[in-house]
Fold this sequence. Notes:
The structure is a single chain. The chain has one domain: SH3 type barrels (Roll). The protein contains one helix and seven strands; from the N terminus they run H-E-E-E-E-E-E-E. Strand 3 and strand 4 form a beta hairpin. The longest helix is centred in the N-terminal third of the chain and has 13 residues.
Amino acid sequence: MPVLFFVSMTTLLAVAPEVEVTSLSGASATGSLQSLNKTVAKVKAGQTEKDLPLSNILNMRFPRHRFQRSLELPVTVRLTDGSHFPIQSL
């Protein structure tokens, strides 16, 4: 079992996921996530690699792994004030 875990983690870390990072100042960076620790996210875009401090990151998205849900029937959202409205997609 430990060997299977090691092989799975090695395979997972070998593939750098595509990431979109937005900073608090509004600047954005898109590329592959090279590493992530408690202080810095390393993003490689082309030949350049950027070290982005986590204290300056507003949002980090993984566009290929977006939640996709198709609604066959509309979902009704009910608010606490009693109003409600149907939605077609999330």
